[in-house]
Amino acid sequence: MERFFRRSLNVTMLCKQTWCEMQAVYSLELPLVAKRELERAEVKAGASVHLARELEVHEVVPVRAVTREDRQAINLLNLLGMIPVLQAGGVVRELPVFGVLEGVYMVGVIDELHYSDRGELVLSELKTRRHSSLPREAQAKGHRLQVGLYKLLFDGLVRGFLTRDDFVEHLRLRLEQPLGAAVLQHAGKLGFQVTTLGDLLDVLLLNLRYCELPGIDVLRLEYRHQDSGLALGSQDVPFDEDLLRAELRNLLSYWTGRREPRGVDIEEAWKCGMCAYEKHCQWRGEQLQGSVMLHTDKKPK
Ligand code: SF4
Question: Which ligand 1 atom sits nearest the alpha carbon of residue 276?
Answer without folding.
Answer: 6
